[in-house]
Amino acid sequence: MPADLTGEWMSTNSGSEDSYQSATIDSGSIKINWVSDGGNTKALYWAGSYEAPTESGVYSWDSQNDTEKTSGAMLASSDPIKTFSYNDKVISYDVSAMGVTKTVTLERK
Predict the structure, then answer these.
(1) Do residues 9 and 63 make contact, with C-beta atoms less than 8 angstroms apart?
(2) Among the four residues 32, 72, 102, 104, which has the most C-beta atoms within 10 Å?
(3) CA 86 from chain center: how many Å?
């Protein structure tokens, strides 16, 4: 049975309880925010397409950037496509900022 990835996710490797990324996945989209100030401040990082797994096990998909939503967001990724991977209840993807790339891992809230 394929995994159901819809719902709320939170980064587990930010190194800070006060600053992290959170994601919401629904039937056809994924939205990721930078979260800071104990959850009081949110800034859009990614809004894109989501393709649900059709088989169980390791899964990945290429999300198309919804530029209508991200073009006006100062901290949003400008990448046209972002690859997400799912394995063992963890979603991972790369984030690049100021010349540094880090792999973010998300777990269900």
Answers:
(1) no
(2) 32
(3) 11
User: Taking CA 108 as the corner, what is the angle to CA 10 and CA 90, rounded to the nearest 5 degrees?
Assistant: 90
- Side chain identity, residue 78: S
Instruction: Count Cα atoms within 13 angstroms, Cβ side, for 62.
Output: 4
Kindly report the CA angle at 105 between 77 and 17, in degrees rounded to 5? 90
Domain ranges of the chain: 7-108
| Cα-based torsion angle of the residue sequence 21, 24, 29, 30 in order, rounded to the nearest 10 degrees | 10
Distances (CA, A) of 72 to 17, 25, 56, 66, 68: 27, 21, 37, 11, 8
Instruction: Flag whether the pTM goes above 0.90.
Output: yes
Interval 10-53: pLDDT, tens: 999 998 888 999 999 999 999 999 999 988 999 999 999 999 99
